[in-house]
Design goal:
Distance between the termini: 76 Å
Order of helices and strands: HHHHEEEHEEEHHEHEEHEHEHHEEEEH
Structural class: alpha/beta
Number of helices: 13
Low-confidence stretches: none
Number of strands: 15
Radius of gyration: 25 Å
CATH superfamily of the largest domain: P-loop containing nucleotide triphosphate hydrolases
Number of domains: 3
Strand order of the largest sheet: 9-8-10-11-7-12-13-14-15
Mean pLDDT: 86
Helix content: 25-40%
Shape: elongated
């Protein structure tokens, strides 16, 4: 007698796989019918409640045609992150809170099969000799995989999910991430072609804000997006070119890096270049080549702990690509990057814009930050709930691009 759901699932899957060897390729509907027949047979002997039979049928179908135990999490719109630490430990982030699910894969092989499905659809390869890969799901969710021997406790799979409908700036205003005044100010900056870096820690909302900013780009411009794994949701732009990097594979094909794609994009007559994230030597190409060579309005994201730290990170990344005197690097950053928008996750797990700052070059090639807006907590804040808003702390100094675009300064 089969004493558990796992045994029933294993028994039915074994029978189905045996039948499929002779039957060949079947449609999803045919497979569901076959699963139903097998469940009826099991029910005739063990009398499984109908609710449990439906759940078992769904699990079996997901394990054979979808992403196994993960499919249910992917169908829950409130889940923003799925973290699989080997076959037996699955964690999720739901509404900003981390929790362990209590569910698991039936074996490491099942987990590896799911990973294989994901990376194959992106024409990528992950194995013991190439154990790290970035990929994406068909819905645009970001996927990172780390295998043995790098991952000691088994295959590690991390899925970052994004809303099917990208957040607009109006949505960010509605949930309190920024004020209407700040949204209007950012609209003018983007329209006028200010080069913007969105910075923040992991999960602070950088991609969300970058998507929201892109909605302000004039619709008649040519935009090129460059990413490790395509996840940006640029809306309303007809002349849009999307490119993503390519890893080397077992056939020995040459990898295509973000640096390669930025260099190529410069020959494609872009009005603006948007790089999903810079985290290495590509910062030189983004800042020194794209932002300083007439592609005003270009944007990117950077991992950093503050607006000031963003400048230091850019300096370090540029030094990874080329040996230049630090004063020359700072001159390039100061003339290329106009605005830094820094984000953070608060103690109540909310995501906020913490600072908007303008970069200014002084006579000694030092970069100064002119803080324009800063987040300030108000008296309603508590230990468990953050309340506050962005307050104006300074005026924009470099108004030339606004004037050239015919946009008046809003006070």
């Amino acid at each position: 007698m089969m004493s558990s759901d796992e045994e029933i699932i294993g028994h039915i899957k074994a029978k189905l796989l045996e039948k499929l060897e002779y039957k060949g390729e079947v449609s999803d509907e045919e497979l569901k019918a076959m699963i139903g027949d097998e469940l009826k047979d099991v029910n005739s002997r063990y009398h499984i409640p109908i609710k449990d039979r439906l759940n078992l049928g769904r699990q079996i179908f997901h394990s054979m045609r979808k992403l196994d135990i993960l499919q249910g999490f992917l169908e829950d719109k409130d889940i923003t992150e799925i973290m699989v630490n080997g076959p037996h430990d699955i964690f999720i982030e739901k509404k900003g809170r981390l929790s362990k699910t209590g569910q698991c894969f039936d074996s490491e092989e099942s987990l590896r099969n799911v990973i294989g499905q994901i990376v194959a659809k992106c024409n990528r390869v992950v194995n013991d000799s190439s154990p790290i890969v970035d990929a994406r799901l068909t819905d645009g969710s970001r996927v990172n995989v780390v295998l043995n021997p790098v991952a000691i406790n088994g295959p590690i799979l991390t899925i970052r999910r994004f809303p099917t409908k990208p957040f607009l700036m109006e949505d960010l205003v509605r949930i309190g991430s920024l004020t209407k005044e700040v949204a209007d100010f950012l609209h003018d900056l983007v329209k006028a072609g200010y080069n913007i870096i969105v910075s923040g820690g992991t999960g602070s909302g950088k991609t969300t804000v970058l998507n929201a900013l892109s909605a302000y780009i004039p619709k008649d411009e040519r935009i090129i997006t460059i990413e490790d794994s395509a996840e940006l949701q640029i809306q309303g732009i007809d002349n849009l070119v999307r490119m993503e990097t390519k890893n080397s594979n077992i056939e020995g094909t040459t990898p295509i890096t973000i640096r390669d794609l930025i260099k190529t994009s410069l020959r494609m007559r872009p009005d603006r270049i948007i790089v999903g994230e810079v985290r290495g030597g590509e910062a030189m190409d983004m800042v020194c080549s794209a932002m300083n060579c007439g592609h005003d309005g270009s944007m990117s994201t950077v991992h950093a702990n503050s607006a000031a730290d963003t400048i230091s990170r850019l300096e370090t990344m540029i030094l990874m690509a080329v040996e230049l005197p630090i004063h020359a690097i700072r001159r390039q950053i100061g003339s290329g990057v106009d605005i830094i928008i820094h984000l953070g996750r608060m103690r109540d797990k909310s995501r906020r814009i913490l600072q908007i700052a303008e970069l200014l070059n002084d006579k000694n090639d030092e970069i100064k930050l002119n803080s324009l807006y800063e987040f300030m907590e108000d008296r309603e804040s508590t230990k468990d709930k953050v309340s506050g808003s962005l307050h104006k702390t300074g005026d924009l100094v470099n108004e030339e691009k606004l004037k050239n675009a015919g946009i008046g300064i809003k006070t």
